[in-house]
Automatic annotation (TrEMBL):
Feature: compositional bias, Basic and acidic residues: 82-106
Record-given protein name: Uncharacterized protein
Region (Disordered): 79-106
GO annotation (BP), single: attachment of spindle microtubules to kinetochore
Keyword Coiled coil: yes
One Gene Ontology term, aspect cellular component: DASH complex
Species in which this protein is naturally found: [Candida] arabinofermentans NRRL YB-2248
GO molecular-function terms, A-Z: microtubule plus-end binding
Keyword Coiled coil: yes
Keywords associated with the record: Coiled coil
Coiled coil feature spans: 9-36
Length: 106
């Protein structure tokens, strides 16, 4: 064989070896990427589940706080109403007492 042809064949063999090595590396990267995709997909589902659960918990807490706040407002209103009724009753009792002391007829 001619030296040029032998040199070309050696060069092509070397390039073929590089190509095979690069293809194997590409295959390894593609496999790793596919594995990472599956893991990231699971992570995304877990995060979505966590966020939905947290939202439900925070919503429940907010509803309970609002119910407690409404109960406190109602209790305060009832207490104010009760105190106002006591004041009216007390005022009426004082009026009767003053009338009796002044000698007025009721």
């Amino acid at each position: 064989m001619s030296t040029t042809r032998e040199r070309d064949i050696r060069l092509m063999n070397h390039q073929l070896a590089d190509l095979q090595r690069n293809l194997q590396e590409l295959q390894a990267h593609a496999t790793k990427t596919a594995e990472q995709y599956e893991v990231i997909k699971k992570l995304g589902k877990s995060q979505a589940s966590l966020f939905m659960s947290a939202h439900a918990v925070f919503q429940l807490i907010t509803e309970k706080k609002e119910a407690y706040r409404q109960a406190m407002i109602k209790a305060q209103a009832d207490e104010d109403e009760h105190l106002a009724a006591d004041d009216e009753h007390e005022d009426a009792g004082h009026e009767v007492h003053r009338s009796l002391n002044d000698g007025e007829d009721i």
